[in-house]
Specification:
Layout (H helix, E strand, L loop, with lengths): L4 H4 L2 H23 L8 E5 L3 E8 L11 H17 L1 H5 L3 H23 L3 E9 L2 E2 L5 H19 L3 H14 L1
Antiparallel strand pairs: 1-2, 2-3, 3-4
Length: 175
């Protein structure tokens, strides 16, 4: 597989991951230390739609595995290490997959810090419409979701070069 500049020059992904973690931790710090927003509090930004809140999540998305913060921290660390080790094969040489994996790693890193340091993840962005309320989230969650979205779209729209070669190889071997 041809190595692309992104994967052969790790400083750019490391810089982006670091910036995501710093932004995530800085915004969470602002929420936790805010004099205008107590734990469990809520500030309306866009009436009946967008709020800044201060909540803690001891689980994963939507509170899955609540009260299993240590297990989630271990899983996050293992996934992060896996992504570092298999970065090049996960990206298959596609630049958008490099961005996707990098975004996911930044988000995983930000939430991992919360799980280890605070034993819960600080969430502060909340959206609702009429009686529907989306679970609160943070910068790290956002980058993970964007990364997963980019990776998923890329996986559907662009064939994996390694799989394509093995399919062609099988076709020629059966002839």
């Amino acid at each position: 597989m041809k190595r692309i500049f992104w994967t052969s020059f790790w400083s750019l992904p490391a810089l982006i991951i670091s910036l995501i973690v710093i932004l995530d931790q800085a915004t969470k710090h602002l929420i936790v230390t805010s004099e205008n927003l107590t734990y469990g509090g809520r500030i309306e930004i866009i009436p009946n739609f967008f709020y800044i809140v201060h909540v803690r999540n001891t689980g994963a998305a939507w509170g899955i595995l609540s009260e299993h913060t240590t297990l989630l921290a271990i899983i996050s660390a293992v996934v992060f290490a896996f992504m570092i080790k298999y970065y090049e094969s996960l990206t298959s040489g596609f630049l958008e997959r490099c961005y996707a994996i990098t975004l996911m790693m930044g988000g995983i890193g930000g939430n991992l810090i919360d799980r280890v340091v605070h034993k819960s993840v600080v969430d502060f962005l909340s959206f609702s419409y009429k009686s529907l309320e989306w679970p609160s989230f943070n910068v790290a969650d956002t980058t993970i979701c964007i990364g997963v979205g980019i990776y998923s779209i890329s996986s559907f729209l662009r064939p994996d070069p390694d799989n394509k070669n093995s399919e062609e190889k099988q076709t020629t071997e059966t002839k």
